[in-house]
Write the structure tokens for this entry.
Amino acid sequence: MAKDKGGSEVAGAEGRDWGATLFLPKTEFPMRAGLPELEPKLLKKWDETGLYEAIRKQSKGRPKFVLHDGPPYANGNIHIGHALNKILKDLVVKSQQMLGFDSNYVPGWDCHGLPIEWKIEEQYRAKGRNKDEVPVNEFRQECREFAAKWLAVQRDEFKRLGVVGDWDNPYSTMAFRAEATIAREIMKFAENGLLYRGSKPVMWSVVEKTALAEAEVEYQDYQSDMVWVKFPVKTIGSGAANLQRLYLKDLKAEAILPDDEFFEKLNNASVVIWTTTPWTLPGNRAISFSSKIEYGLYEVAEAPEDNWAKVGDLYVLADKLASVVMKSAKVVSYTRRGGLLLGGLVCAHPLASLGYDFDVPLLDGDHVTDDTGTGFVHTAPGHGADDYIIWMQNQKALHDRGIDTSIPFTVDADGVLTKAAPGFTGKRVLKENGDKGDANDAVIKALSEAGNIIARGRLKHQYPHSWRSKKPVIFRNTPQWFIALDVAPSDSPAGSRPEGARTLRDTALKEVERVQWVPEVGRNRINGMIETRPDWVVSRQRAWGVPITVFRNVETDEIIPNATWKHSGELVSRIEAAFAEKGADVWFADGAKERFLDGLVPKGELAKWEQVRDVLDVWFDSGSTHAFTLEDPVAFPGLKGISRRSLVKGGQDRVMYLEGSDQHRGWFQSSLLESCGTRGHAPYDVVLTHGFVLDEKGQKMSKSLGNVVAPQDVMAKSGADILRLWVAASDYSDDLRIGPEILKTFSETYRKLRNTVRWMLGALAHFDGRGVNVDEMPELERLMLHRLAELDHDIGHAYETYDFRKVVALLSHFMNTELSAFYFDIRKDTLYCEAPSSVKRRAALTVVDHLCDAILKWLAPILSFTAEEAYALYRPGEASIHLAGFPKIPRGWRDDNLAAKWDRVREVRSAVTAALELERAAKRIGSSLEAAPVVYVDDADLMSGLDGLDMAEVCLTSGIEVIAGPLPADAVVASDVKSVGVIPRRAEGTKCARSWRITKDVGSDPAYPDLSARDAAAMREIDGAVA
């Protein structure tokens, strides 16, 4: 043993492994994450320890933040869009929980509807069974079992994403209590007078044989037949009154005609319409025009001999579109004969010879423009919303003129033209598989034979398709059940609706203004949709759904229950109780009508009451989820007592809805209308929307393109935390992109974050918990605490505003740039080499402890598995990090003056680093510890800020000399720090075998001849402790 200066024995230095004496990081937190193996273990742990239940217990008494789940459809494995949606919801739920709210998430499923019916029908066809021969409740039971199977599959897949919620007690629209509530909700509309049965054109799926709502339709490219059709003007006589009404001289006329001649030509003219649905012409009953458009009488002067448009033909057209029409009709030249006032003009039907021998009036409509077509709109009130509206608006005037105002049913449920379309009965608009039928060709042929077509062609345009079958739909007049948007409900007590709101549409628009929309553009989007949407068609001609639980008097059209029928309350109670006990199947059971109406309707009158067997639009189901989830404390006790601050004086709770941006016309809107119609207010306070998921090139994903990214594959290869990081770091307000290269980038981002966490955990292996007070800490430690205080504000605000992208950006920059590349870089020497009693070392460990605590909690909502894994090592024995709140950072840590000073210090560090990089590149030095540069500072303020700082430590050099004054000509000056010049020099002295710093005091302690004085003193303390 060697002896020290006092004669005491110390451990010998000869051949000693100095690396083993360093306080290097030690941790069981692996560099390689192994997330695919780790994450299922943590999920099992969360289940076994009852994490969700523990969170609920801990949260009692807090203000509630409820993210009400928009129900996915239970009919297949989840896709990447599902993963985005559920992860984003989990980010909101976990961050709101850590912000101090009781943020309870109850997942839900939409289980009724056509896609599931289709699956069962496919199974039937494969077995040679006919659905129509199967008892309806047997069929419904198979649908229920199918939905239950996929609900279970999806539940496991959603849990695998790390989403925490009430998975053991989710809601589903097919639960008996849910079906009972949905039935009760539709009966509320019956009682308040908004539910009615009407016959109007609706979007109809021939493939699915049911009406569709706007939310069930998507627009795709489609090639339509287009025709320009003549409606001959009927003879109207030569009286002066008619002449004044129909003829207007103007200066645009190319050949001004005497009145009699003009009028004679008009009698032989035709009003020309343009349509892309020739099959609707049998349903034509009027022509719409606009009094705001200028029209003229045009005569064909030159045309090919075999042309449909002949020389001498006379057409009434919008002036702005005449040249386009003539070109389409292959007319070589033409003459404008004068302008027209169209009021009172009557035409003949172009297919009059086939039995359409009625007058076709011209109606003035706001929907007519001269942007395309002819300036006229062929109006078939059974096949279009605008057509129906203008026809109904003119009912009295038309009746007074002796015109039949009934709307014909020209197309049946199979897309086949009926007897109401003479000459075309049996022709198909669409085939059963959705392909184009033979109706268009038949109508075009008949028009040609009648001499009433002047041109035809094909047009590729956006056309409505069913979002389920992806097949085109048709507009078809059919009896359906509607909820009226522009009628005042009969049960609106004062104060139940926003001030100034009379109708359901009024109420919904008022509530749109009250609700917070994230992003804000969502407000304008849904506002525009509600302003222009038609009444809500809520009936579907299918089997698997909640029935419209009303009875209709076939003689009077009365609906029960209603606001005045004395037994309404009893009928509603019977239906609701029966559904709650046995489900909606009881409605379809034999004798259901008699049981429900027993004692309420005289037996002799039962035949007058028709039991409605249509089922509800599934959007009504999902639009009612607030009623059977948020308002049912028996089924969901964790949601009991929600007191919304927007509705209740003193209320503190908020409800959020979060879905994709397409749900402005779907769930957001159906929920809004349902709640406003029955409660007078929106069911939510905040609505957050996200975009769709595209591939790396911005293309939609499809199996045919081979660009589908399955979340199951990503989790199996990289782990759910990589998906969670992708969601959090992306701008969810726009469409998101994903693919192999993008995932590789996020894996690298994750690796850097993980390594920073790993280093902190390793450093803290040497922390005994004895911290240092802030006022005793060096400036660098106080600077890091200042940065924590700044981040606490910025990250807290980002989480409060659902800006997860900013959270990731702030943490990534802080962890990679400010910690790993700056603070840790500087303090590694102190942490590894200084004595255990060193105040600076203990201060650094204290700060690392604060950093680790804050960073893990800030990361927890995003990297839920990684944060949990790290926290178990950081705080062994403590409960899950997901039971913790965000860190409480003292405001007193903030020191803006210190931060401003260190911004300048870092300028000097940057200048030195740049100069030494040049030296390293020239191979004049290896490590920066081989340097002891001279630094010139030509800035008095900057120089004063360096006073008292160990700039060699800051710059990671073995020595440094800082001189105030002008910069020498040979100094290296960084482009971004003009007031600092550096003259590189090699450090003088001997390299310390322990810290690798080059100093002149190596060997000053004979017991440790290879160490610097600092390291020798540290070793004496370490060796003394060991002894």
